[in-house]
Design a protein that fits this description.
12 helices; eleven-stranded mixed β-sheet; Rossmann fold; globular; alpha/beta; Isopropylmalate Dehydrogenase
Length: 290
C-alpha cells in the first residue's frame, strides 16, 4: 500500500470537516485546497480573516485575533462536534497543543498524546510507521507503553489487523549500560500476551530494514521480519530517522498526533504540500477505520 492508495481510500470515505488553526501559510493552504478539490474535506479556516481572504476564496473562514484564539476556536469546534479533524497551520506547536490538553476546554482522551509518521520508502516493500518523531522528548517506560498502544490502534484503524511493532535501540542484545535496550526487553515482556498486536525488541535498525543483516546476525523474529511500526527510544532518534528518510531516502511521509478526540494533522513547516495532503488523507481514513 502506498499513499496513492491511501488517497483513493480517503475519496471513498464520507467527507470530513477540517478545522485549520492559523492557515496563513501557502503550503498549508495548498494542501487543504487540494484535499478539498479531491472531495476529502470541507475546510474551516480559523485565523486572520483579512490575510486569509487575500490568499484564498475557498472554505469557511472564522476570524481570530491571535494564534492563541485560533487554536482555542479550532479545538472548540472539535469538542462541540462541529469539525472532525484538527490541523496545525502557521502557529507554534506548543500553542496548538496547549489548547488541546486544556483540562476544561481541551480534547485529550488518552493518557498521552503521541505523534506517528507513516513513510513510503522507494526501496521498502510496504508502508512503515515510526513513533515518536515529533512530540514526546524523552519517554519513560510508561510513556512508551502509551506510545505503543496509540500506534497499535492507529495501524488497526488504517487496516493493518495485527500490527508488528519493533522496539529500536543501538543493538539487538540487551545491554545493562544501554537503557533503551533494557526498556525494550521489559516492554516486550509486558506485551507478550497481547492478542491484537505484536511487540518485540530490542532491535538495531538494520535488523528491521535488511534481510541480509538478519541472516548475518542469526535473527529469526516475526516482528523484525515484517515490522509495521518502529518505536524509537527518544525524540532525538525518531526525528533524525524522519529527516534522513525524507531528505536522504526520498521517502514520502504523513504525520498525525494521536490520543485526542480527533486526529491532529501536525507536520513540519519544511514538509512538502504532498506530505501535508497525505496527512489529511490519512486522517480521513483513520477516522473511518474500524
Amino acid at each position: 500500500m502506498n499513499f496513492e492508495i491511501f488517497l483513493e481510500r480517503a475519496k471513498n470515505c464520507p467527507k470530513q470537516r477540517l478545522a485549520v488553526a492559523s492557515p496563513e501559510d501557502e503550503s498549508v493552504l495548498d494542501a487543504v485546497l487540494a484535499a478539498e478539490r479531491e472531495g476529502l474535506i470541507e475546510a474551516i479556516l480559523i485565523g486572520n480573516e483579512e490575510i486569509i481572504r487575500k490568499m484564498t476564496h475557498s472554505g469557511k473562514i472564522v476570524n481570530a485575533q491571535s494564534t492563541e484564539e485560533a487554536a482555542a476556536l479550532a479545538v472548540g469546534m472539535i469538542r462541540a462536534g462541529e469539525a472532525d479533524i484538527l490541523m496545525k497551520g502557521l502557529l507554534d506547536t506548543r500553542t496548538l497543543l496547549r489548547a488541546v490538553v486544556n483540562s476544561e476546554t481541551g480534547i485529550r482522551e488518552q493518557k498521552l498524546l503521541s505523534h506517528i509518521t507513516l513513510f513510503s520508502l522507494p526501496d521498502f516493500p510496504r508502508l512503515l510507521a515510526a513513533s515518536d518523531c515529533a512530540m514526546v522528548i524523552s519517554p519513560g517506560i510508561e510513556e512508551k507503553r502509551s506510545i505503543i498502544e496509540n500506534a497499535a490502534l492507529f495501524m488497526r484503524r488504517i487496516g493493518v489487523r495485527n500490527p508488528k511493532i519493533a522496539l529500536i535501540s543501538a543493538t539487538e542484545k540487551t545491554n545493562p549500560k544501554l537503557p533503551s535496550s533494557v526498556e525494550a526487553s521489559e516492554l516486550t515482556d509486558h506485551f507478550r500476551n497481547e492478542k491484537d498486536f505484536m511487540v518485540s525488541g530490542p532491535f538495531a535498525l538494520d535488523n528491521v530494514l535488511s534481510a541480509e543483516s538478519r541472516k548475518t546476525k542469526g535473527i529469526a523474529d516475526e516482528v523484525a521480519e515484517g515490522a509495521d511500526v518502529l518505536i524509537f527510544p527518544d525524540l532525538d532518534a525518531g526525528n533524525i530517522f524522519y529527516k534522513a528518510a525524507v531528505f536522504l531516502g526520498k521517502a514520502e511521509a504523513a504525520g498525525l498526533v494521536l490520543g485526542a478526540k480527533a486526529p491532529i494533522v501536525l507536520t513540519s513547516r519544511a514538509d512538502s504540500v504532498k506530505s501535508k495532503l497525505n496527512s489529511i488523507a490519512m486522517a480521513v481514513v483513520y477516522n473511518h477505520g474500524s
